[in-house]
Amino acid sequence: MNSSREQEPALKVNALVKRYGDMVALDHFDMEVNRGEVFGLLGPNGSGKSTAINCILALLSFESGTVRVFGQEMTPTSYDLKSHIGVVPQNVAVFNELNVQENIDYFCSLYVPKKADRKDLVEQAIDFVGLGDFRRFRPGKLSGGLLRRLNIACGIAHQPDLIFFDEPTVAVDPQSRNAILEGIERLNAQGATVVYTSHYMEEVEQICTRIMIMDHGRQIALGTAEELKGMVQAGEQVTVETLDLKESTLAKIRALPLAQSVDYDGKELVIHCRQGEHNLQDVLTVLESTQTSYGHLTSRPPSLNDVFLELTGKELRD
């Protein structure tokens, strides 16, 4: 990229508005992604994530607002700018008639016209995703995890500076998921800026430097995972194994100021706490003062999933 634009963010979206008839899909949506980061974009179904990405990529028109990539305005005809962008879609997008190597070569050719220039790029992409032993296989012969890795290779073969990953680990086994996440971290270490969407919160917390949560077409929270956890009331979850919890003791625990919710199934007591410094000690004080015997006890800090549910609600979305 032009050295004069080195200080510009990789992506800057300002006040984007997109409507479908009377429905507002993006409501003055803002987003800024710094160069060299892995940026997590989260939101429930229908929050506007896919619409935002499609507008950023100039695949959708929008009513107002601006999109700038590496300091340049993004338009449908910004072909040079688009050559610096890679997209790995949620739905695998490859040609069943072509084998692994041919698929990667085809998608690379959209950005690198000369076959001689593509040869090393295709080989590097095959090596990067570990498909060397499958280069002559057609997609129909690949497992779900290998197919996902082919999907990634097709999106990154031209070595883009900005890469969008949309749910890249859906329906893959743990080994494939781990390989994909490690691959994304390697791409980032090599200089790529990554925008990552997923419904697997543990993945986002593992690899993303900053995370945005959006809903109803606008940003509702932004920060590191720890910063987001500090924005909500949710605190730790205390779990206690006990078989002799009396109703009077349970009532005392429910009356604690820290307790957001308390559940007991006859074997396990689970307390979801508000943020506080002495939650575990307060629970233990009640158990010991009532001479309640207990076994295994754990305290789990709030997760990104807890934050997500508190900010976006727990109702199901279509």
From TrEMBL:
Give the organism, scientific name: Bifidobacterium polysaccharolyticum
Coiled-coil boundaries:
none
- Output the PANTHER family linked to this UniProt entry: LINEARMYCIN RESISTANCE ATP-BINDING PROTEIN LNRL
UniProt KW keywords = ATP-binding, Nucleotide-binding, Transport
Q: Which residues form the ABC transporter domain?
A: 11-241
At the top level, the lineage of the source is Bacteria
Q: What is this protein called?
A: ABC transporter ATP-binding protein
Q: What is the lineage of its organism?
A: Bacteria, Bacillati, Actinomycetota, Actinomycetes, Bifidobacteriales
Q: Which InterPro entries does the UniProt entry name for this protein?
A: AAA+_ATPase, ABC_transporter-like_ATP-bd, DrrA1/2-like_C, P-loop_NTPase
| Molecular-function GO terms, alphabetical | ATP binding
